Amino acid sequence: MTDEWKAPAKASAENGDDKSWKLLEKTLLASVQEQRRSRRWGIFFKLLTFVYLFAALMLFTPLMSLEKSAAGGSAYTALIDIEGMIADKEPASADNIVGSLRAAFEDPKVKGVVLRINSPGGSPVQSGYVYDEIVRLRGLHPNIKVYAVIADLGASGAYYIASAADQIYADKASLVGSIGVTAAGYGFVGTMEKLGVERRVYTSGEHKSFLDPFQPQKPEETAFWQGVLDTTHKQFIASVKKGRGERLKDKEHPELFSGLVWSGEQALPLGLIDGLGSASFVARDVIGEKELVDFTIEESPFDRFSKKLGASIAEHLAMWMGFQGPALR
After folding, report:
1. Phi, psi values for residue 298, rounded to 5°
2. Gap between the Cα atoms of 98 and 28, Å rounded
3. Does residue 92 surpass a pLDDT of 60?
4. What CATH superfamily is the domain 75-182+218-321?
5. The organism sits in which domain of life (predicted)?
6. Which of 66-70, 149-153, 195-199 has the lowest mean pLDDT?
7. Where are the domains of the chain?
8. How many whole angstroms separate alpha carbon 39 and alpha carbon 22?
9. Phi and psi (nearest 5°) for 116?
10. 3-state SS string over 191-219?
11. Which terminus of the chain has a lower count of CB atoms within 10 Å, N or C?
């Protein structure tokens, strides 16, 4: 009798163990699933928070700029920064600078405009756009004077823009001038020959590929390209002469248009600038309204990232091709 009862007891114990393991397995699986769900929701809420903060930044950045521009209840001096390379898709693009200028001239509280310049130059097209707009706005608003103030550097295309102002100021150690045009590239003809690589280009148009860095230069094409640069240089010189007028001592110093740069102290007797001083000095002692209100258009971080990405791709492609277009430098 004793042996007959032992077998069922043993079977019952095994069944109990199986049930315990199954229960434990279900509990562990449920715990894992819950953790997975928690992680998914955690990721979702983190992404949602990021999107919310990013959207808030995009929304409030322009509003902050508008509030900054509209500050104050009395008259003030408008400040517009021109910093870095003057080029499309850059902070110092013609679109941004022209937009800032128009906003400043349309503000009834603005008594004068200061262009605070710290730039090596850049695109002759972008510089020309800004120059023309300054001339146009000065004609429409003769009571609002424009003053260019050069900080560390006001060279080439930056000086092109400055020459459209009523007066130009700089620090005694600022670098001013560089009235010239440059276009740079590389030639890989010798390298290709050493590597035994043959370049095959198919074009429609005799000179379509004359800037190809993998092909030898032809004298007539080099002369043609030099003519393009010379024409751009003449346009630059004509604009500077028109803006500076009789103040420019170019007859006594023809080297002014050679591409050289001068310190602010040297530039003053040459007629490249009208005086020595900072933006605050001009606002306080020249315009007579010491309060400076910033009208510089500030792009949102998203716009800056998008433009930088596109410009970077184009720039690297141009560098890979070994060519850079004409630039006022």
Report:
1. -110, 120
2. 66
3. yes
4. 2-enoyl-CoA Hydratase; Chain A, domain 1 (3.90.226.10)
5. Bacteria
6. 66-70
7. 23-69, 75-182+218-321
8. 26
9. -90, 110
10. HHHHHCCCCCCCCCCCCCCCCCCCCCCCH
11. N
Residue for token digits 């209840």? 73
Measured distance CA(242)–CA(47) in Å, rounded: 56
Q: Locate tokens 């850049």: which residue?
A: 122
Question: Distance between CA 267 and CA 169 in Å, rounded?
Answer: 10
> What whole-number distance in Å separates Cα of residue 169 and Cα of residue 156?
16
Range from 94-98, 110-114, 179-183 carrying the lowest mean pLDDT: 179-183
Q: Which long-range contacts (CB under 8 A, 24 or more apart) does 205-210 make?
A: none
Cβ atoms < 10 Å from Cβ of 171? 19
Angstrom CA distances, 310 to 122, 192, 304, 306, stand at 18, 30, 10, 6
Q: What is the pTM of this model?
A: 0.72
- Note the pLDDT of residue 147: 98
Which two tokens mark 29? 């699986």
Which amino acid would we find at residue 214? F
The DSSP bridge pattern shows strands 76-83 and 110-119 to be parallel
* H-state helical runs in 141-254: 157-162, 189-195, 219-244
- Measured distance CA(48)–CA(43) in Å, rounded: 8
Closest CA to 274 of 253, 255, 235, 246: 246
Contact 273, 169 (CB under 8 A): yes
* Average pLDDT of span 308-321: 54
Q: How far is CA 306 from the centre of its chain?
A: 11
In terms of Cβ atoms closer than 10 Å to its own Cβ (0-12, 13-18, 19+), residue 118 is middle
Integer Cα distance of 269 and 35 in angstroms:
77
